[in-house]
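Hi there. Long-time user, first ticket. I'm pasting a complex I've been working with (about 371 residues overall). I'd like to know whether the download I got is complete or cut off, because the file seemed smaller than I expected. Thanks.
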Amino acid sequence: MNTNDLKSIWHDVHKNHQTEEYPNVNMGELIRMKHSTIIARVVADLKLKSLLYAISLILYLGLMIYAFAYLGVHLSTGSIIPLSLAGLFLFIKTISEINRFIVFIKTADTMSMKESTFFFREKLNRIKRVDFVSYFLFFYLCAGGIFYGYLTDLKNSIWGHEMLPFLIVLCIFLLSMPWWLNHQHNQRYKDLYASLSDSANFLQEPTNQL
Amino acid sequence: MEKEFIEIIEKHQGILHKICNIYFYRNPYKEDYYQEMLIRLWNAYPGFNQQSTISTWLFRVALNTAIDLIRKEHIQPKYIELSKNEYIIPEPDDDESGNRDKLYQAINHLSEVEKAIIILYLEEYEYKEIAAITGMSESNTGVKITRIKNKLIKILGYEHK
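Hi, the file is complete. Here it is re-exported in full:
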């Protein structure tokens, strides 16, 4: 087969298919929309998730300010730690969801394919970095909080000694969580990373591949 | 500007359908993705500075959109179950459709970037234009096209002469 035959096959199979394939598409209406139906639903879902976490965080902050500044509630350090961690969790989830939303809506349509591939890979790495830093902070502070709680409240209690191995295992588990989640990210997006690497390598000049 | 844009789309809609058919081959969301492509073309249109031809610009934006939509499906998998009545994927009903299906199936085995390059090649684009859309050099474009053509011929099951 001559390689030019590919062109003739291509033109042959399309010669009778120049008619409009999507009769329901109304251009006038379409260009007034921000997204098509399915993409709009996905964007709305991401927006809703970000909004719910943000509202929860605002409510939490409002309640904390009301309790500590207005009512003048005084709590022990051992009680403040879990409360702060709950707030930190909400903050991390809000940032993470907003980051995902931004990455989803950002586009690089007018760039060359090579640039848009690098652009997308950078965005994906940004999700990974933000998630890792957030979870690192959260889980390490959790482990620190548990250790602090042990030193101040549990160490001198009657079962303080028996609790220690259990707490050590729990802390090791918490300290390893950011790396485990990072690994999960790599696993989850394994195909996407592979496809991006293939595209990037394919578009590189031969000298750059050496 | 709106009228001008609609005229351009009507003139080049064949190309857009081909991109959609290649990238979203037998995908139930094909029409939605086609619409998203048009919306993104419209959003990018004010930035078109006539440095390239309109069809080159159109191809660049449409191909980037198609690839971007596929990538984003990985980030945010589709979660909405569409009823079977809403989207029906038609089976090929004649020889020509059968041939088209065979060709599309073969192209579907290529990577996202390979698909883009082969569409541009099959649509008679010059190496210079393909290089401008992909971001490769002209010489590298020629090498890659030869490689993709051979790969496609092999997938189609033809003997290479």
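A couple of notes from our side: Chain A has a mean pLDDT of 85. Chain A touches chain B through 63 residues (CB under 8 Å).
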